[in-house]
TrEMBL record:
This protein's name: Protein kinase domain-containing protein
GO BP terms: signal transduction
Gene3D superfamilies with a match to the protein in the record: Transferase(Phosphotransferase) domain 1
Molecular-function GO term, any one: ATP binding
Domain Protein kinase intervals: 1-53
Pfam family, one: Pkinase
PANTHER family reported in the protein's UniProt record: CCR4-NOT TRANSCRIPTIONAL COMPLEX SUBUNIT CAF120-RELATED (PTHR48011), MITOGEN-ACTIVATED PROTEIN KINASE KINASE KINASE 3-LIKE (PTHR48011:SF64)
Organism: Solanum bulbocastanum (Wild potato)
Domain of life: Eukaryota
């Protein structure tokens, strides 16, 4: 889920493309770009950390 949809900010088609890219990455590799057990921690990682490929 894109951070914009979780923090109630403006939403655009680019958000859907971003989410699709994350989903495709996880389907191909079997691991998410940002991993944690707590949704708030994942949101923080998405906002402040680069993905680890």
């Amino acid at each position: 889920m894109a951070p914009e949809s979780m923090i109630n900010t403006e939403y655009s088609p680019q958000v859907d493309i971003w989410a699709l890219g994350c989903t495709i990455y996880e389907l191909i590799t079997g691991t998410p770009l940002w991993e944690d057990t707590d949704g708030d921690d994942v949101l923080e990682k998405i906002e402040f950390e680069e993905p680890k490929f």
